[in-house]
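Entry:
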Amino acid sequence: MDKRISGAGEAVSKIKDGATIMVGGFGLCGVPENLIRALRDSGVRNLTVISNNAGIDGAALGLLLETRQIRKMISTYVGENKIFEEQLLKKELEAELVPQGTFSERIRAGGAGIGGFFTPTGVGTIVAEGKEHRTIDGRQYILEAPLRADFAFVKAWKGDWWGNLVFRMTARNFNPMMATAADCTIAEVEELVRPGELPPDVIHTPGVYVKQIFRGESYEKHIEKRTYRQASGTGA
């Protein structure tokens, strides 16, 4: 089945206000930049976004925070975005912070059809409030629910017309898991090839999980956080 579409604009055209969207990426690596820009331009609002982080000011999910299109973030780390902080403190944005390992497993459980799992992470903290506790082999655990979404935005290195995806290095972060845990997975790729050009043994996400695919454009290599060192010879 040929799953190619014309571009990001067509991909987001059926997304409505109030949708829940998983967005791949770790920091600014493996982020579906074209889909995020198209979603911003579409003007849809009151979105719940499930993503490892909230981008930075002026890039990635920071674009949707600037336009106040996100109502709730479910994330693990949000420390690089001033707009996120401002909106959260003003109670203009709701946030659910999840330990990163738990976050990954909740998405995996959602994709695998698992109804929930017990983990010791978060026991005795605010993460455990309101959740079922159980003692297993003398250790306390809490029940965590799976995560699913209406849409998943993923970014891959290569893909074919059938939706088979290959991720490159760190970009193979939350993207493969999220592709399995949404009703509609949309993939943008740097290179779109004919079916049969990707060796079966290198495919990370089978096309059965992907509903739409297109070749993205205008990728930028943003730097999440700059660090500097003194030039040699300038002293300690």
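Helices lie at 8-12, 33-42, 62-66, 82-89, 100-112, 175-180.
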